[in-house]
Amino acid sequence: MSVAEERIRAVEARIVKNDFETAVAFDTDGNVVFEKIGVHNEVDFTPEDLKKLTGRIVTHNHPFEKTTEVFGVKGTSSFSSNDLRTALKVGITETRMVVGDERYLFRWNNPDEELALDFLDEIFDLENVYELKIADAELELATVLDEFDINPCPRTQLDVDRVLTEYYQMRKDQYDHINELIYNNQQIGYTLRKECTQ
Ligand SMILES: [Zn+2]
């Protein structure tokens, strides 16, 4: 393994444990040239930040979600359309993401711009389909939790368990579906790899 790769992995091992996102950019020798902390599900880049990402290797974490624990795995997620859009727009050399015990590596290889943008829209639409379903499940969860508060008994506990399981299943389906989409369209002009970190 190159020194650069070792340095990047050391940073990834640190940020993967956080329950908020952190983005870190490296030069080709693996020196940190930029680091920014975000919130639970995003890091907000200013135009000034974005300039610092061009030609860099940029990694970030997706905070561990309970979602995956339910299914007996340490972590799973998918790149967001926003991750890949930023990579295309500013010309990031390699975009990496770590979650649980997984590492995802993505590179654009001079794609046809129109095809690439259509593809990003396709991911974005899919994200929205799932976000709507998940918003419904969250509403239902709030309802059954209220009922459980008023009347904590085996029956209301079962309702909570059922809705939670549905919610987790939807998150997992979302990640699986988007990963499948990204994995299966590499002819557009990018590469995606997935590695186990342990
Ligand atoms: Zn991301």
SSE layout:
Blueprint: H1 3-15, E1 22-26, E2 32-37, H2 47-51, E3 57-61, H3 66-70, H4 81-90, E4 94-99, E5 102-108, H5 113-150, H6 154-183, E6 190-196
Parallel strand pairs: 3-4
Antiparallel strand pairs: 1-2, 1-3, 4-5, 5-6
Bound molecules: zinc ion.
Residues 60, 62, 79-80, 83, 97 line the site of zinc ion (ZN).
Describe the structure.
By secondary structure, the protein is α+β, with helices and mostly antiparallel strands. The chain has helices spanning 3-15, 47-51, 66-70, 81-90, 113-150, 154-183, and strands at 22-26, 32-37, 57-61, 94-99, 102-108, 190-196. A six-stranded mixed β-sheet has the order 2-1-3-4-5-6, with helices on both faces. Strand 1 (22-26) and strand 2 (32-37) form a beta hairpin. Helix 4 packs antiparallel against helix 5 and helix 5 packs antiparallel against helix 6 (154-183).
